[in-house]
Write a structure and sequence with these properties.
By secondary structure, this protein is an alpha/beta fold. Helices cover 49% and strands 15% of the residues. The structure holds hypoxanthine and zinc ion.
Length: 334
């Protein structure tokens, strides 16, 4: 049981496809008559030895082949929601990669509707709120992203916003400026991955060219003091994923993770799991791992949880309720 299970948590950096555990991957492979390039769950798990972001993405996109139907997408996200509810999850803004599925002939609406089914069920059965964030794959053509956004117009009521993910190095945010401007016109919120593998300049570019309200990862901002000052001044939320940074070898050891330096600088940092099935931990596990490697006092744990609430796209009322729950947790720990 996580030490932080009772701390109310908001997950802002979570890829639906990154919650696909080997057991479910094989269940869906059998159900859909799809073959995986691994003989067993153990063999698949043994392949989770990544050297960088691309080595992870290659496996991540390969296993998505088992996801074919609306029911599959429901089952995928529901398994994540049930498991995370036990770790204190209260609100989640879920990334998904439609191009990884439509390029295989899966209907856009089956992806969105299946994920939305799971979130709706989580609202009634688990008391978890949230929404969906459609991510564009930055290593695929801009016009494909533009077409994906046009397809999304039939589902604007269930989409919170758009994001940008996949390979960072060599794929800067700038070319997606027009697509993000169109998303804003459609009333969608904007976030982007930047500064995990790519340099600090990618963070500034995401802010300036895409108008993002939140930066996913952003750890490399520390290389640029002027950028840090700007992120502090503008209170830009940074969704940090220490277990991702460890498994993708952005840091060699969690003890050396720059989280303390980011907090000391006054950055609005929160803790998230990214791709929990692949990186070895869900959101509560992430708090535990940081506590074990670096020490984590209760005030700091509450600050991280509060930063996630503040950085979320939840309603003002929901934010106020979650902040109250965090203060109650802190009071009970004293
Ligand atoms: O950690 C990630 N980084 C970039 N793209 C991704 N797509 C899924 N997970 C990731
Ligand atoms: Zn991510």
């Amino acid at each position: 049981m996580s030490t932080y299970a009772a701390l109310p948590k908001v997950e802002l950096h979570l890829h639906a496809e990154g919650t696909l555990e080997p057991e479910l991957a094989f269940t869906l492979a059998r159900r859909n008559g799809v073959s995986l390039p691994f003989a067993s769950e153990e063999e698949l798990r043994a392949a989770y030895d990544f050297t960088d972001l691309q080595s992870f993405l290659d496996l991540y996109y390969a296993t998505t082949a088992v996801l074919r139907t609306r029911r599959d997408f429901h089952d995928l996200l529901w398994a994540y929601l049930e498991r995370s509810a036990a770790q204190g999850l209260r609100h989640v803004e879920v990334f998904f990669d439609p191009q990884a599925h439509t390029s295989r002939g899966v209907a856009f609406t089956d992806v969105v509707d299946g994920l939305h089914d799971a979130l709706t069920r989580a609202g009634t059965e688990l008391g978890i709120t949230g929404g969906l964030i459609l991510c564009f794959l930055r290593d695929r053509p801009v016009d494909e992203a533009a077409r994906t956004l046009e397809e999304a117009r039939t589902r604007l009521d269930v989409l919170l916003g758009v994001g940008l993910d996949s390979a960072e190095v060599g794929f800067p945010p700038g070319p997606f400026a027009g697509v993000f401007a169109r998303a804003a016109e459609l009333g969608l919120r904007r976030v982007a991955h930047a500064g995990e593998e790519a340099p600090a300049s990618s963070v500034a570019e995401a802010l300036d060219a895409l108008g993002v309200e939140r930066v996913d990862h952003g750890v490399r901002c520390l290389d640029d003091p002027d950028l840090v000052a700007r992120l502090v001044r503008e209170e830009v939320p940074l969704t940090v994923c220490p277990l991702s940074n460890l498994r993708l070898r952005v840091v060699q050891d969690l003890a050396e993770h720059p989280l303390p330096a980011m907090l000391a600088a006054g950055l609005k940092v929160s803790l998230h799991s990214d791709d929990p099935a692949y990186f070895g931990g869900y959101v509560g596990d992430t708090f535990d791992a940081v506590a074990a490697a670096q020490g984590l006092d209760d005030a700091t744990a509450a600050l991280l949880a509060r930063n996630a609430v503040d950085g979320s796209f939840a309603s003002p009322q929901r934010k106020a309720d979650l902040r109250g729950e965090i203060e109650d947790w802190l009071a009970a720990r004293r």
